[in-house]
Amino acid sequence: MAKSLKLVLLGPPGSGKSTVAEQISKKYSLQDVYMGQILRDEIKKDTIVGKEIAKYLNKGELVPGNFVSDLIYLIVHKKTKFMLDGFPRTVQQAEYIQDMKININCVLMLEVPESEVIKRLSLRRVCPNCRTQYHLKFFAPKNKNICDKCKTKIIRRNDDNPKIIKERFRVYHQKTAPLIKHYSDQNILYTVDASKNPKEVIKEVIKKLNKISKGKNQSKSKR
Length: 223
Ligand code: AMP
Fold this sequence. Notes:
- This protein is an alpha/beta fold.
- It is 48% helix and 14% strand.
- It has one domain: 3-Layer(aba) Sandwich (Rossmann fold).
- It has nine helices and seven strands.
- The longest helix has 25 residues, at 198-222.
- The protein starts with a strand and ends with a helix.
- It binds adenosine monophosphate.
- Residues 13, 35-36, 39, 56-57, 60-63, 68, 86-89, 93, 159, 168 line the site of adenosine monophosphate.
């Protein structure tokens, strides 16, 4: 694997970014930075900042301003191997970190039809303690509503209800989807068919990353 892998996971809500991030970060020793979870953890602490952030998350809107981008800078500016899940979500955020010399070199776009992800989100449950994600039909916990790993009662995320899901999609199309062209213009965008089951998706991601890494190493040795 290339020495520097600064990876971004793109895709609509429910496309499986976090599942991919969990598996891939382990396999390639990448720091997994899941912005949505960082924000939810802050809300859980019930700080002034957390209360402010909650106003946006509960409506399905993006946290405004440079707060999130500054946080990313603090977490990764000295790192050479990381994976960003849920960041950037706007071209402005992408340009902001680029200006701060955080040079993303690989973007994986998880493609899934909207009808499919809406179905997935309505059946998604998470463990509020260890963060394990479940799908009530395809990846249900062994004991009803109890997390397999830490035995906490699993819950539905506040923003996984139909009204908020609709808003999150509106925000995705308006603000996040332009990143596809942004990164494609930089020749670092790779698409993955994420409509398949998680195992197959991970397999395809690994295949792609190995190929990308081979390319990087080859172009490096040519220089
Ligand atoms: P996620 O867990 O990725 O679905 O994110 C949940 C929510 O966190 C989003 O709907 C936004 O409200 C907020 N959020 C996550 N990432 C960002 C970001 N890069 N910029 C602003 N808000 C974000």
